[in-house]
Design a protein that fits this description.
Layout: E1 22-27, E2 32-37, H1 39-50, E3 56-59, E4 63-66, E5 69-72, E6 75-79, E7 82-88, E8 96-99, E9 102-109, H2 111-116, H3 118-133, H4 140-149, E10 154-155, H5 156-162, H6 168-181, E11 184-185, E12 199-202
Parallel strand pairs: 7-9
Antiparallel strand pairs: 1-2, 3-6, 4-5, 6-7, 8-9, 10-12, 11-12
Length: about 210
């Protein structure tokens, strides 16, 4: 098994690139503020937060030396027993690298790939702030009640009706928290805007 370094905890110090927009958001998986430079980096950040298989990440973790030029890494991610450096833009000429004696795969994220995920990104732009605002307010008993309720695909409106005795905002925050943790699925979010008709379903046990 590849040794996990978990060595990237903060971005490298650098000025905002000229012409790029600074976007500040809260990273739930990091429990800290995250600063993205530009819409592409922000869109990729949303995808990282939305993917339950991504355990943790760091924005702008390091520079790579390629062909005597420095290339900024947009994200480092930890996914299972693999650590990967993500670079947004044109295809990178290297597929792996070593930094401080640790091995990393290198993956390029194209603008077309981000564009294809736009509906997913827009849905999670709405979901993540609700999870963040409900942190500390969602009881474990509510999470367990929702998991027990959803034994088959169920529309958001139906789930909220079944739990009408609880605060609606907290119920929605709990549903989205389970989605964020990978304990629920909502495949419709890949292709359709989030609505009361969005169906949430249990994650089948793969063991």
């Amino acid at each position: 098994m590849t040794r996990l370094t978990t060595s990237f905890h903060a971005p490298v110090s650098m000025a905002r690139p000229r012409g790029s927009r600074r976007i500040e958001i809260y990273g739930l998986k990091l429990d800290r503020r995250v600063q993205c430079f530009g819409e592409a980096a922000y869109g990729q950040w949303v995808c990282l937060e939305a993917d339950p298989s991504i355990q943790t990440y760091c924005e702008r973790p390091a520079f790579l030396e390629i062909d005597n030029e420095k290339l900024l890494v947009d994200f480092w991610i930890k996914q299972g027993d693999q650590e990967t450096l993500l670079i947004i833009g044109e295809e990178c000429s290297v597929q792996n690298t070593t930094l401080a004696k640790a091995y990393y795969a290198v993956k390029t994220i194209s603008q077309n790939e981000l564009a294809a995920a736009q509906v997913w990104i827009e849905n999670w732009e709405r979901i993540l702030p609700i999870i963040t605002s409900c942190r500390g307010l969602v009881a474990d008993t509510l999470l367990k009640s929702i998991e027990k309720l959803i034994t088959e695909p169920m529309q958001l409106s139906h789930i909220e009706r079944e739990l009408a005795t609880s605060e609606p905002t907290i119920v929605r925050g709990a549903i989205f928290t389970l989605l964020h943790r990978g304990q629920l699925r909502a495949p419709q979010l890949l292709t359709e805007p989030l609505s009361f008709l969005t169906r949430f379903e249990p994650v089948k046990d793969k063991s």
